[in-house]
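Board notes, transcribed. Complex of a protein with flavin-adenine dinucleotide.
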Amino acid sequence: MGFKILELKLPTGFDRQELEQRIKKKLKTVEFSYTIEKQSLDARKKENIHWLIRVGVSSPALRGPGRKPQPGLEIPFKKRDKKVLLVGSGPAGFFCAYVLVLAGFKVTIIEQGSRAAARLNRVSTFERTGQLDENDNYAFGEGGAGTFSDGKLTSRTKSISKERNFIFQSYIEAGAPEEIAYLAHPHLGSDNLVKIVANLGREYLRRGGVFLFNTKVRDIYLKNGIVEAVETGSGKIEADYFVFAAGHSAYETYRLLMGKGVPFRVKPFAIGCRVEHPQELVNLGQWGCSALPGVKAAEYRLTFKDNAYMPVYSFCMCPGGKVVPAAPYKGLNIVNGKSNYARNLPFANAAIVAGINLNHLLKKEVDPLNALEWLEKLEKNFFALPGSYAAPACKIEDFLGGRISASLSGSSYPFPLFPADFRDLFPEPVCTSLRAGMQHFCKKMKGFEKGIMLGLESKTSAPVQALREKGGRSAGVKNLYICGEGGGWAGGIVSSAADGIKTALTIAQP
Ligand SMILES: Cc1cc2nc3c(=O)[nH]c(=O)nc-3n(C[C@H](O)[C@H](O)[C@H](O)COP(=O)(O)OP(=O)(O)OC[C@H]3O[C@@H](n4cnc5c(N)ncnc54)[C@H](O)[C@@H]3O)c2cc1C
């Protein structure tokens, strides 16, 4: 049985039969099996948008060796009596715990929020009443910040291919569509994620893992460079290893770690707004038509670089989705985006952010606690202006023209929009850079100026980074690991989960 890779171009509305016909024609035989290895949309020429598909084909008609087996993630299992305690059930904490359970450890995940279904109810109540639950919201609860998201599984992090395959395979076994294994821009959708997160949780429990939901770590017993236990309010919990995967919204947890002398440094991050457009306008701009068979909704990625400004770029684009109020704590205003698997809602949204270096922006050496304080103050200011979770907003055209919008409509955001002058909210260099970037994007994407912008987008990545030794161990603390987005070494679902897996493999090293 020989093996061959075929690169095929197929129309957007192709079906499996058409694909198989094309393979048959290329191989000149009907005896073959195949797997799609990669599928990406080529929309460079609007008059000829098509899928580029790479298939791996095995057939007796092919000469040469068969398909080489792909090396998988090696998890060293043995009977162990060591206990590991993880803080946070987001992608980093969960995948770290899952791998540790598979390696034979006694593992407990502590999560301040609830199981996904109960969390979903609290999020719906918040959107109906404006009453935020500080433990169950878009940032906190089972599955972490990624549960009610677009579930985009793209990651630019290098050297995580084994971890990525393990994550994707785990998602597929938990109910994700198989296409995530080969699509260039795979995504799960919020509706799928709630079920996948719950199924993954069940599998972890079946393998002997323990969850403590509605349990918050409030203190750490750290003595002579060793963590002995954590305090949860309902008791002290001891373990041999401690992994903090608390995400980058958990200011209290950061402050707790920093207060105990766990070393962090300030790192570059980004702030800005979410822009929202009618999806049809994005489809027209990107494809030249309002719909394409076999493709859900058009996406975009925009970047602007000019030495006179901060870099400005789009991030976390959610086609056919919704802008959501993602504040983790009362009195902060933060927006983010999500979509369901079908991506069929009438609006598209994306973050447009300016990359900042706080030391340069504030023209002084900033320490990690100051960085958190600075960001939290900005999040508070965005709440203080409307005095609620109404989002400070502006039409892009008005922002470019230096005006406050007289009226605002056409948004998926569940709370009202509050006409605002972003010059009063952002530091001047951020505002100027966002304006220059958006001017550029208006030239790049037809109709971009017709959108609206809502603030504040402040969670593209963490403003601080844990100092780690090789293998992810916290510098100077023998049995403490800080991983995922909160550690400042990952950003997004896949890279955070991969960082969690790498941490687990370090702990499991013989
Ligand atoms: C609305 C939204 C949409 C997003 N969309 C995408 C997307 O499409 N694709 C993508 O790649 N990324 C997306 N992201 C970002 C992604 O969710 C994060 O990068 C990822 O979840 C980070 O994983 P993590 O495990 O490091 O931390 P988190 O997911 O933040 O999880 C941390 C967990 O720790 C818990 N915790 C914190 N402190 C304590 C404590 N003291 N005690 C107990 N528990 C604690 C929190 O409750 C939380 O559940 C989105 C985020 C949001 C909010």
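The radius of gyration is 24 Å. The domain at 2-59 is CATH 3.30.1660 (Dodecin subunit-like).
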